[in-house]
Amino acid sequence: MSHNTYYDKHALARAKDLLADMTLSEKLGQLNQFSGEDGHISDHLRANIQSGNVSSVINEVDASVVNELQRIAVEESRLGIPLLIGRDVIHGFTTVFPIPLGQAATWCEQTIEQGARIAACEAASQGVNWTFAPMIDITRDPRWGRIAESLGEDPFLCARLGRAMVTGFQGTDLQDATSIAACAKHFAGYGYSESGRDYHFANISENELRNTVFPPFKMAADAGVATFMTSFSDLNGVPASGNKWLMDDVLRKEWGFKGFIVSDWASIEDLSVHGLTENNAQSAQLAANAGVDMEMVSRCYAQNIPALLEAGTVRHSDIDAMVTRILYLKFALGLFENPYTDSSKFPERANLEHLEAAKQAAIKSCVLLKNDAHVLPINTRLTNHIAVIGPLADDKYEQLGTWIFDGDERYSITCAEAMRAKVGNNGHIHYAKGLDTSRTFSNEGFQEAIEAAQQSEVVIMVLGEESILSGEAHCRSNIDLPGAQSDLLDEIVALGKPVVLVVMAGRPLTIGAETDKVDAVLYAWHPGTMGGSAIADLLCGDAMPSGKLPVTFPRAVGQIPLYYSQKMSGRPVTQESFVHQNDIPIRAAQTSLGMASNHLDVHFSPLYPFGFGLSYANLQYSEVMLSSQQMSAHEPLNVSVDISNESDFDTDEIVQLYIRDLVASTTRPIKELKGFRRVHVKAKSKVNVSFEITEDLLGFYGQHNTRITEAGKFYVWIATDSASGEYKEFSLVK
Ligand code: BGC
User: Fold this and answer.
1) Of 508, 539, 570, at which residue does a domain stop?
2) Which residues are catalytic?
3) Quick one: 230 and 290 in the same domain?
4) Is the shortest distance between the CB of 87 and ligand 1 below 6 Å?
5) CA separation for the pair 713, 693 (Å, rounded)
6) Residue 297 sits in a domain of what CATH number?
7) pTM score
8) Element (H, E) at 69
């Protein structure tokens, strides 16, 4: 716990004192989370709070209702224990920031921390004191709808950005009125659900868990995240909510996590649906013994723990420990002193400062994937007639993204609106929807769109997915542009005008065919409230594209899982050994192909690699410079590059450090991200960017699943993305 700056020993002492005064029923009450009732307080909820059966309420966000709930708890229950008020504040509250996957494309810890800080402040103004974020599940499957809520495919990047979110939500002091408790979720393995189907099962070796899935969770625990949430998924045969190894052995004993663990929504009850238990009593027994402290919404604990205690299958001492952990957080948050929320003491929600921060986050999150013939930026002084076309071009709601319970679309600025503001009276925006929604197949609106394009010098097509096509339970087996969007694009491209494709989506889409046809592509994810404004600034050169992909873009669904840090295999494919099925002679002999690890019908490379993103500037990287050819535990290595900006544009560049361990006692990835930095490079200037490689950075979990470092040769790259750059070699000596 040494890194945990939030740890409060007085809160622990107070929790223990209070525990000593509690009846069994009051203790068990602290393990229950009830669902809110949409601004209404039923007699049932009121009576349960009065009798001390309610520890937390989820999904109640009106300050006056929350204050009344707190009043009932504080004044009308015997011990006056205040409530934890939980809410999914995931990428903003009233002010909506880009979806987490978009925020990850900023590669910017400060931006992410600031976004979470603002979200916390807005949520706290309504009485929320606990969020269920960050989601730090590593995933390599864009079919999974919750990739939208993730911070991407890479453990190093996700760990850093997840930590920034925790710090943003929790602030510098949990007692501050604007601080809310964070929750690292979903522990663990949810992002590996088979075939990208939500709630599915995951089979992950312990080695993969430790090297890839756990690092962001470990970092969140070290950073002092207040709570953890279990995953819905079955992990190697033991669903997470009943998995003692995960919660007790790893999280509590090995990592020293002192906060409490909440189940996911009814995930204790689900244990019998999985077939791990026969009934709710067994589920309660298993989950309590495995380490889940609070049950979200279902009632397995409340209904069964008394009998389990009598039977001796759940221990009183364990219940005491569970209750203490929950009470601890209530004391640490200062709820006993300040259970009520005075909204008037908070800054207004969606104020100009918050909106501007959301805009800057959206600017940093957009990734420029293509810009042939420099069609971008558009010079609005010279180009007066611009078409803005597509079902997502002027839709205030759909640009917001997946978790927007509290988002207010009235604040949204769409692309069409922002482009109109941009050209002002000097030109004209020819807007057409083209398709009613992103899923529409009817081509009724095509003619109007064609006419809009015909009247224009350049066309901006805003296509992608509506919000509802990503997020929880919203998985897709086909991740092409839905509906007739591709057909609409074909009609517009056929007119021969320059076409810029802006994609709003909750996941990487397989847009290879579309990107080939257009001149420029800006990937905007679901950019949130200020999305249109950010996009217009980027398209018109008032802001510089600087985002980089936090996830690999596959060419075809059949390539999934496709990620940059795959292993070598014994038969790696190369450009020379790759054969496409169209090039195979008829009746070719079985062994006449390259015998390499690839599909015959799609190139082995991704559509766009992890870390990729263009800007309007033209940057050149020098060779990697090493302070030595050798390093040791006592003598870390300094590696650096010079980056020169030949262009007339100032820009931000996300510089990426990768290493490869050439020979190890278990095979290692062909590349692993080990550092990154967002640096500003002024026009016609040069910067030097350096990283320190310590022995610890070269560590990994080996055959015995303990962390080791091994002497030997390594490659190092400092590059603009995971597929570029020349490596240099160095050795670690022991
Ligand atoms: C989700 C969690 C979320 C919870 C509360 C569940 O369905 O998996 O991520 O925090 O609901 O809304």
Assistant:
1) 539
2) 264
3) yes
4) no
5) 14
6) 3.20.20.300
7) 0.98
8) helix 63-76
